[in-house]
Amino acid sequence: MKVQNTQVQMRKGILEFCILHIISRGEVYATDVIGELTEARIVIVEGTLYPLLTRLRKAGLLDYKWVESSSGPPRKYYKLTASGARFLEKLNQTWSELVESTQMVIQKDKNAPMA
Q1: Domain range enclosing 9
Q2: Which strand ranges, in their side-by-side order, compose the sheet holding 28-29?
Q3: What is the pLDDT of residues 52-100, one digit of tens each?
Q4: CATH label of the domain that carries residue 70
Q5: Residue from 57, 51, 45, 47 nearest 20 by CA
């Protein structure tokens, strides 16, 4: 088994969560999402991002608007809907619980007897 496969799966699992967080800060252009994820060392390409944004929009978690651009075609800016904000809040709670639980497991004294 290759460690890279597991690493990819772990990153995929948090991708939607990270994207919703980025968009929750205000209206963002897809390129900005890619830039922030790349800066955080979460590699994503447009071919992965756009279908995910479409799925989140169809689920009612995101909305978008077209904005004219002086340097080319209009740009689509995404924003979180009220439903998306509630969804993200639930994900935040789950994330906190997972981090706490994971820390309990990985930091447990290796010499302690198993129950």
Answers
A1: 3-107
A2: 28-29, 72-80, 62-69
A3: 999 999 999 999 999 998 888 899 999 999 999 999 999 999 999 999 9
A4: 1.10.10.10
A5: 57
